[in-house]
Design goal:
Number of helices: 26
Shape: globular
Enzyme class: transferase
Radius of gyration: 26 Å
EC number: 2.4.2.43
Transmembrane segments: 21-41, 106-124, 130-146, 153-171, 183-210, 222-241, 280-298, 319-336, 342-363, 375-398, 404-421, 428-446
Subcellular location: Cell membrane
Region (Disordered): 554-574
Number of domains: 3
Helix content: 55-70%
Number of strands: 6
Distance between the termini: 77 Å
C-alpha cells in the first residue's frame, strides 16, 4: 500500500478521529464492567476458579489453591496462583459475587489494552496506538475473557508486558536499563500467572523476530544478572513454598501439565479429561477468536505474499514484523499440540491488534482508500442490523430497565459514529462503529439469554430457589450425581449454606440418602433424575425445580410441598 502525501490527514481530523476511538474503547469497557455479574459463573472451569479464590479468601492460605473434587477438599496443582490471588483480593474488597470473581480479568484486560496503546504510540503514532486498543478490546474472544473468571488474561497481560518492555529496551529509550529489568519482572510474573509457558511464548516470539531482523546484538545489552535475579525473586518463593506444602507438586505441574500435556492426550490430568483437538486447530481458533478483524489481516497476508519480491527491496518495518511474530506465536507453538483450548491463542492478540491497526491506517492513507471505506461501510451496516436484532430479542426476552437504558445509550453512540463515518467517508469513525457494535451485540444477546444460560450451565438458579424455601430453611444440599463447582460457590460463598459431600457418586449415594432419610435437599440435573430407578425416586419428595434442575428431599418438608412438573417418565412419589 503506497501512501500519497496528498491523502495525509489534517491534524484536526486526526484529533477528532482519535477522540472517537478513545470513546469507543471506554464504551466497550464500561459495558463489560457493568455486565460482569449478569451471567452466573459456569461449570466447571470458571466456577472452579471462582471457588479456589473463595477458599483463599476465607482460609487465608495464599500458598495452596484448593477446591472440592469428588467430595474432598484437594490442592489444585494445575495452575499457579496469580489469578487466584487477584480474585481473593477482589472478594476482600467487593464481597463475594460473580462480579467480584470476574473483576480481575476486566482489570487485566484494561491493562493489556493500555499497554497496546502505548506500544502503538511509541513506534508509530497516537492514532495507531488508539486504533490498536480498539481492535484488541473489540476482538471477540478478548472481549469475552475480559469478563470471565479465567486464568488466561493474567498470562496474556504478563506476555504483553514482557513484549512491550523488550521493545522499549531495544528502542534505546532513556530508561532502557529499567525496561530490560521490567522484561525479566514480566517473565517472573508470567511464571506465577500460568507457569513456564509464558517464558516459552515470549522466547519463541523474540527468537523469531531476532532471526528475521538479525538484531541479535541487542541480547548482549540485556541486564541478564540483575534481571534474572528479579525474575527468580518474583517467582521462586511461591514454587518453593508450594512444593514444601504439597510434595510432588513440582513434578506434576512441570512434567504433566507442561511437557506431557503438549505431547500426548493421556498426560495424567488430575482434574478432568484433556481437550483433544486436531493438529493445527490453533490456527482455526485464532482466525475465529480474533473476529471481526481477522479478514483484514488475512488480506494483508495475501497481499504481502503476492508483493514479496518488490517488498524485498524496501526497508522492513521492524516493529510491524515484531507485532506479527508476537501475534502468531501462540498458534505456531500449539500447532502440533492437540490438548488445547481456544483461550491459548489470546497472548498473541495484542500483537495482532497492533498489526491490524498499522494495516488499517496505511490502507486509509493509500490510493486504495475507497476499497477499505466500502468494506467498513458494509461492516457498519451489518453491525447495525445485528444490534437491531439484539434489541428485538430484548423485547421478547426482557432485561432490566437499567440494562436496557445502558444498551440503548451505547448503541446510540455506535449509530452516531456509523452515521458520521458514512457522511464524511471517515474510516476511523466507521472502525469505531464496528468496534463498538460487535461487543455490544454479544453482550445484549448474552443478557437476553441469561436466564436460560444461568440455569443450563450453572447451579445458580436452583440454589437460589432452594435457599428461598422457608419450609426447608437451613437444610444442607446434596448433589449426589456429580461435582458442580458452581454449587460450592453459590451455596457456601453466596448463600452461607452447607453442602454435604460424598466421595461416592450415583444411584448408590441417592439410595443411601433415602435409607438414612436426613433433613437434606437433593439436587439433580433432570437427565440424571430420569436415570434413577423408579423405586428410589418414590422415596423422595419434590420441593422445587427449574428448567434444567429438580430438587427433592428424603423428608416431606411441609404438609403441602410445592408441586413439581415432570414428564411421564420422571414422575415423583404418588
Amino acid at each position: 500500500m503506497i501512501i500519497g502525501s496528498a491523502d495525509r490527514p489534517s491534524s484536526s481530523w486526526i484529533r477528532s478521529s482519535n477522540s472517537m476511538i478513545l470513546v469507543a474503547i471506554l464504551t466497550i469497557f464500561a459495558v463489560r464492567l457493568a455486565t460482569l455479574g449478569t451471567l452466573a459463573v459456569t461449570d466447571n472451569t470458571e466456577a472452579r476458579h471462582a471457588e479456589i479464590g473463595w477458599h483463599m479468601y476465607r482460609t487465608g492460605n495464599w500458598v495452596t489453591p484448593t477446591f472440592y473434587l469428588r467430595g474432598q477438599l484437594k490442592p489444585f496443582s494445575g495452575k499457579p496462583p496469580l489469578s487466584f490471588w487477584m480474585t481473593a483480593a477482589a472478594y476482600q474488597i467487593f464481597g463475594v459475587s460473580e462480579w467480584a470473581a470476574r473483576f480481575s480479568s476486566w482489570l487485566l484486560g484494561g491493562a493489556i489494552v493500555l499497554m497496546t496503546v502505548l506500544f502503538g504510540r511509541r513506534f508509530w503514532s497516537a492514532q495507531v496506538g488508539l486504533l490498536a486498543g480498539l481492535v484488541l478490546a473489540s476482538s471477540g474472544l478478548f472481549f469475552v475473557l475480559s469478563g470471565a473468571c479465567i486464568l488466561d488474561m493474567a498470562l496474556a497481560a504478563t506476555v504483553c508486558l514482557a513484549m512491550l518492555s523488550f521493545a522499549f529496551f531495544v528502542a534505546g529509550d532513556t530508561n532502557s536499563i529499567w525496561w530490560g529489568r521490567a522484561f525479566f519482572l514480566a517473565l517472573g510474573l508470567g511464571c506465577l500467572a500460568k507457569g513456564p509457558v509464558s517464558v516459552v511464548l515470549v522466547g519463541i516470539a523474540l527468537l523469531g523476530w531476532l532471526a528475521i531482523t538479525h538484531q541479535w546484538k541487542v541480547l548482549k545489552r540485556l541486564p541478564w544478572i540483575s534481571g534474572t535475579a528479579i525474575a527468580i525473586a518474583v517467582a521462586a518463593p511461591w514454587y518453593v513454598l508450594a512444593e514444601r506444602a504439597n510434595p510432588g507438586f513440582l513434578r506434576y505441574f512441570l512434567i504433566n501439565e507442561h511437557i506431557l500435556r503438549y505431547l500426548k492426550h493421556d498426560y495424567g490430568d488430575r482434574y478432568g479429561g484433556g481437550h483433544t483437538q486436531p493438529y493445527g486447530a490453533s490456527w482455526v481458533m485464532l482466525v475465529v477468536a480474533f473476529l471481526p478483524w481477522t479478514p483484514l489481516l488475512i488480506r494483508f497476508a495475501i497481499e504481502s505474499w503476492r508483493g514479496r519480491r518488490s517488498a524485498a527491496a524496501e526497508p522492513r518495518d521492524l516493529w510491524l514484523t515484531y507485532a506479527i511474530v508476537w501475534g502468531v506465536t501462540p498458534a505456531i507453538f500449539f500447532t502440533l499440540c492437540r490438548q488445547i483450548l481456544v483461550t491459548y491463542v489470546v497472548p498473541g492478540f495484542a500483537g495482532l491488534a497492533l498489526a491490524a491497526a498499522v494495516v488499517l491506517v496505511r490502507w486509509l492513507q493509500s490510493t486504495e482508500k475507497a476499497e477499505l471505506l466500502r468494506l467498513l461501510r458494509v461492516s457498519t451496516v451489518c453491525s447495525t442490523f445485528l444490534l437491531l436484532v439484539a434489541f428485538t430479542g430484548e423485547l421478547i426476552y426482557p432485561v432490566t430497565p437499567v440494562e436496557f437504558v445502558g444498551f440503548l445509550a451505547a448503541a446510540s453512540l455506535c449509530f452516531a459514529a456509523a452515521w458520521f463515518g458514512h457522511q464524511r467517508g471517515d474510516g476511523m469513525f466507521l472502525s469505531s462503529a464496528v468496534g463498538m457494535g460487535i461487543p455490544l451485540f454479544m453482550t445484549m444477546v448474552l443478557s437476553s439469554g441469561s436466564t436460560l444460560i444461568n440455569d443450563t450451565y450453572s447451579t445458580k438458579t436452583i440454589v437460589a430457589k432452594v435457599a428461598g424455601l422457608t419450609e426447608a430453611r437451613g437444610w444442607p444440599i446434596v448433589l449426589p450425581m456429580g461435582d458442580e463447582n458452581s454449587a460450592n460457590f453459590y451455596v457456601e460463598a453466596c448463600h452461607n449454606g452447607q453442602i454435604v459431600r460424598h466421595t461416592d457418586r450415583g444411584a448408590s449415594c441417592v439410595l443411601e440418602r433415602v435409607e438414612q432419610s436426613p433433613q437434606e435437599i437433593l439436587v439433580f440435573k433432570r437427565k440424571h433424575w430420569r436415570s434413577l430407578n423408579p423405586e428410589v425416586r418414590r422415596g423422595l419428595y419434590p420441593v422445587t425445580e427449574t428448567g434444567h434442575w429438580v430438587a427433592f428431599s428424603t423428608q416431606n418438608p411441609a404438609p403441602q410441598a410445592p408441586t413439581v412438573a415432570y414428564n411421564d417418565d420422571e414422575q415423583g412419589p404418588q
